[in-house]
Sequence to fold (294 residues):
Amino acid sequence: NHLLRIINVDLLPNKAFLKIFIKRGSKMQIKQENDGHAIIDHLTGEEVLTCAINIGEQLLMSGAEISRVEDTIRRICAAYDIRQSHIFSIASCIIVTLETKDHKWITQTRRILSYGTDMWKLDRLNNLSRLICSTKPPLERINREYALILNGPVYPPVVQCLIYAMTAGAFAIFFGGNLLDGFSAIFVGALIRITLYAFTAIKMKAIFSNILCSMISGMVCILTHYIGLGHHVEMIMIGNIMLLIPGVLMTNSFRDFISGDMISGLLHFSEAMITAVCVAVGFIMSKMLLGGML
Fold:
């Protein structure tokens, strides 16, 4: 058992930082913060590694580029005096190996099964990593802030359907359609979001989900034009195609290329191209099935 005596820090002049080191297998630091409360800061190499790779994993799942993920993990490890840190990350995996102050080597691997784009979470994770590097907070505070980010706000389904609808309508008008085409695209855009929800619920693979969603939306575009709700079926289709184009994924692939992460760049670029092909195939199939109604 560790023998620990905590001095009343309120009696210290100017509430200066109080540091007590006890070494018996590991180091424990007690420091005084500005509010007059003593906080125990006890981070082992395993805890630093877990903290760093947790943040890196969420960054990657939220759409961060590979260079940002690796740099964030490296900086967090350096903030806690890790002797060496070696990070390898691609779109689907993170491997981190580090050497602690006790010359002990430890490794963790995380498999990334899915990722998307979440700017709110990216911003909060970046702020948390800066906080860790600048103040080296105790593990309890890091875990608390990390949990708040994981349980952050999510747009409800109704709001997401409205966003899809407004985006599709705006693009249909932007590319040359009239107001009636925009209203038709609004209806189809909301249907795309509902269809994606349904395919996600049954855990359909992304390739089949993109093809079927594109085919269904293309058929609905043709039907709305056939019954007179829209004048230019091409503009209605273009407005909804823009919802399915992997623009962020393509941009991240070029950012990876520029940063020198060729493997991740090729993976992102290949995924973006395959997704674009699936979208095109879906709309082509819709015209093959209902093209006679045009």
